Amino acid sequence: KYLINFKKQKSILSGIYVAPYIKSAYFRSEGENGWHVQENGYYDENNLWIEEVGYYNSFSKEIKNIQGGLIMGAQLLFGDVISLEVFLGGGIQYAEVEGFNPDYYNTSDMKEYTGVIPKIGFNIGAAF
């Protein structure tokens, strides 16, 4: 429900609003971080090439996160068809990470982050 409707707009889909939000996600990731050399290749005493010794560092991680907060926004309807919405707000995100060091993730744009998170964005849509 909109707190304030724009006077020029006849549609009930236009106005300013404040709303809570909640979001949950699950991610699973597996891969390799590249080749790690333990011993470089070399020529032995018989002038034969000995290949380097190394390994691929593989990883597997599982992320579960949930976030919730409050956003404020405005939505306009153009020609009773095109909808434009802009919003701003914030909330809190909590994440559980298995299989990887969670202390590495300290920025709010990462799925693995736990803490205060900003929300800003826009949506463009069609009304039917």
Sheet bearing the most strands, described?
4 strands, antiparallel
Q: What's the mean pLDDT score?
A: 83
Structural class: mainly beta
Rg from alpha-carbon coordinates: 26 Å
Relative strand content: over 45%
Number of strands: 6
Taking pLDDT < 50 over at least 5 consecutive residues as the criterion, the unreliable ranges are none
How is this fold's topology laid out?
Elements: E1 15-39, E2 42-43, E3 49-50, E4 53-78, E5 82-98, E6 115-126
Antiparallel strand pairs: 1-4, 2-3, 4-5, 5-6
What do these coordinates show?
- The structure is a single chain.
- Helices cover 0% and strands 66% of the residues.
- The chain has 128 residues and is mostly beta strands.
- It has a domain at 15-31 and 63-126.
- The strands form two sheets. It has a four-stranded antiparallel beta sheet, with no helix packed on it.
- A hairpin with a 3-residue loop joins strand 4 and strand 5.
Nutshell version of this structure?
With 128 residues, this protein is mainly β. It is 0% helix and 66% strand. A hairpin with a 5-residue loop joins β2 and β3.
Keywords:
single chain, 128 residues, mainly beta, four-stranded antiparallel sheet, two-stranded antiparallel ribbon, 6 strands, 0% helix, 66% strand
